[in-house]
Specification:
Order of helices and strands: EEH
Structural class: alpha+beta
Oligomer: single chain
Largest sheet: 2 strands, antiparallel
Radius of gyration: 24 Å
Strand content: 15-25%
Strand order of the largest sheet: 1-2
Number of helices: 1
Shape: elongated
Length: 69
């Protein structure tokens, strides 16, 4: 089914543009302090933050803080 549009008989039919799929969402976790970036993590697509992933992120953050101080 095509969309209908009012137009005058002498006007050309408007061009239809192709709709592209979006690239998708990306979840990033970012930690920083006054000196700059401490940790940047990206989650794989279509995953959720669980208790275990949160614990892993906090452990990685602690290690990043120890390295930078």
């Amino acid at each position: 089914m095509e969309s209908m549009q009012w137009k005058h008989k002498t006007f050309p039919t408007p061009k239809k543009f192709k709709v592209e799929k979006p690239a998708g969402k990306v979840t990033a976790t970012v930690f920083w302090d006054e000196k700059g970036l401490l940790l940047l993590e990206f989650m794989p697509q279509k995953t959720t933050i669980t208790g275990q992933t949160y614990a892993n992120t906090i452990t990685a953050l602690r290690m990043a803080i120890k390295e930078k101080r």
